[in-house]
């Protein structure tokens, strides 16, 4: 007895069957009052502290200076400067240094910003980290009291033929001369002294760095000054008297400020003393 064969379904029949299934599902979803889940844009939360700090116009350089970290810092500098060129950017630095070319990219971006870039050292600012610390806006270059600052000449190495070594040596000498010239400009030290001081690793305390001209003020001491009203973050009133007093310069050039009471609440009309 021959086996019976079922008729094959045509492509049109298959397409109609699929349309019917989708139609029934759509009707059932509509009847239950359900729809696709809402698409909620991701926002910064407690699990994204760097996003929250970026909203406060704070940028962190907390690693070695390389192309990756430089790209991140430069992009954030340009973004914040575009969003509001009238408000300061705070660049916190805890870096052992790194690539000179990557660091010069950050330096150029800082110079391009229309707003002031306040630099704050916490932990260690060494080599290119110290260079960027001193490159902040004058009067707004700060350091935590326990930080260390270290300056030295560029390091490098090369291998190959004699001509290759000569090319690399010339490049290192160019960077050395360029860095010393810029550091001399923002510290006020003669170029010859900067060249002599950077011949070997020179570690400094915040007080020594202030006297040298790399930073302007030290946060947390009896003579602490912070040029941004409200402290490190714009969080309003605080119960901490960590920053003893702040000062700001009005358009007429006169300094006005406020002293802090024991509870840390500003007492308007306080006199700023240098």
From TrEMBL:
GO BP term, example: protein quality control for misfolded or incompletely synthesized proteins
Family designation: Belongs to the peptidase S14 family.
Protein name according to UniProt: ATP-dependent Clp protease proteolytic subunit
Residues passing through the membrane, by range: 117-136
Top enzyme category: hydrolase
GO molecular function, one term: serine-type endopeptidase activity
Organism: Pycnococcus provasolii
Gene3D superfamilies on file: 2-enoyl-CoA Hydratase, Chain A, domain 1
